[in-house]
Amino acid sequence: MSDATRRRPSVLDIVAIVAVIGALAFSLSSPRVESQGDAARMLFIHVPTIWLAYLAFAVTFLASIAYLVKGKLRWDHIAGSSAELGVVFTTVAIIGGMIWGKATWNVYWTWDARLTLTAIMLFVYIGYLALRRAIPDPETRARRSAVLGILGLVQLIPVHFSVTWWRTLHQTNTFRPRDIQMDGPILAALLASVAAFTIVYAALLRSRVRLAELELRAHIAAAAVEGPVAGDAVTAPAIGDGGAKP
Amino acid sequence: MRYVVVGYILTYGTLIAYVISLMARLRSAEEKVGDQG
């Protein structure tokens, strides 16, 4: 393998590692929350990861629109990569939320509006990733998945506002700019975690987009070597000559 | 505290597993493109 194709860790990768270690130390050393005890420390993972799930799916939405407008596969790579990261962060948010739920509600799962809608959102985006894997042609895959990438964002509205629209067991949104009820050190730890995980998202998105570009290059190179498949070699009969050959 | 320890291991573990899998896929794709080039 040549040095041109091998990627070395970037400054962003190193900053992401340092940031996440810092956020971990910050969240484990923050003061206890009297009402929830140590279980509140799970919120330093749960809140940033669900925020990143929102961000990742919003990026998929915007990149899908950009692909349909501009027609460049780079936008499709960003959309697909961000959706994959969104699925990972939603999974982590659900795991973290379940552990926090067991410690505070004494149940891992309940069919609460927020939890149920978040699970549905996860399955829709797993379906989006499955759709991408099912279509080998890059252009067709990009066009069809862009439509789902745009429609998929509609779910974010009921997911986010479910805690205010319906009476739910899940607490209301943690970030309420006009009504902050957290102590300073806890709020600082939470914001540090959000910032650190956002840097991690940016670093992972960069790597995942590079993977998508390499996969496209491999696909083009393989298609050039293999030549036309058997189906392409079959020529449709000419209409109007009665099928007669000279 | 038991839930916090389990929760941190599961959540950070999931993220680390994804990063390792992404790096492995990236390396494999780099090798594939390098071989073709």
Write up this protein.
The complex is a heterodimer of chains A (246) and B (37). By secondary structure, chain A is an all-alpha fold. Chain A has one domain. Chain A is 70% helix and 0% strand. Chain A is built from eight helices and no strands. In chain A, helix 2 (43-70) packs across helix 5 and helix 3 packs antiparallel against helix 4. The radius of gyration of chain A is 23 Å and the shape is globular. The N and C termini of chain A lie far apart (52 Å). Mean pLDDT of chain A is 86; it is low at 242-246. With 37 residues, chain B is mainly α. Chain B has one domain. The longest helix of chain B has 35 residues, at 2-36. The model of chain B has no long low-confidence stretch (mean pLDDT 89). The interface between A and B is medium-sized, with 35 and 26 residues.
% residues in beta strands of chain B: under 5%
What is the average of the pLDDT values of chain B? 89
Gyration radius of chain B, in Å: 16 Å
Mean pLDDT value of chain A: 86
Largest sheet of chain B: none
Number of helices of chain A: 8
In whole angstroms, the N-to-C terminal distance of chain A is 52 Å
Assess the beta-strand content of chain A as a share of residues. under 5%
Structure summary:
The complex is a heterodimer of chains A (246) and B (37). Chain A has helices spanning 11-29, 43-70, 73-104, 113-134, 138-152, 156-165, 184-226, 230-233. The model of chain A is unreliable at 242-246 (pLDDT under 50).
